[in-house]
What does this fold into?
Amino acid sequence: MLSLSCKAAIKAVIFLGTKFDSGEKSSIRDIAKYINENEHTVGKILQKLVRHNIVLSIKGPNGGFYISAGQKSQPIIHIIEAIDGKEVFKQCGLGLTQCSESHPCPIHNDFKPVRDAFKKMCVEKKVIDLYNNVNEGLAYLIG
It folds into this structure.
């Protein structure tokens, strides 16, 4: 359901969250290396996240990307909407353009509750919820 770019964006924001307490700023290279993504792709994603006020950046020798206290409390759905748009939660499970209640695809009735539950989770889960699990060793960003 989520694009590869969106998944990378979520991982990047979680990574930046793990650096919040230390106040450390991270370079594109460091983020890309840690989340195992292409530097160019991560750079484009971070630009978009900065434009949508999901993350912050500072230029210069002591610069980099980071999140603020307010940004760590934002729901994950903000990241998804910034990268994939709001329509991602209305898409057909098979990718059909004409899928609806009145014109369902073969998996519509099974997929819709899963999609709705996923959206609910994305609204409820905050960035801090996800990076705290990483900091505590209960979840991982690398395979």
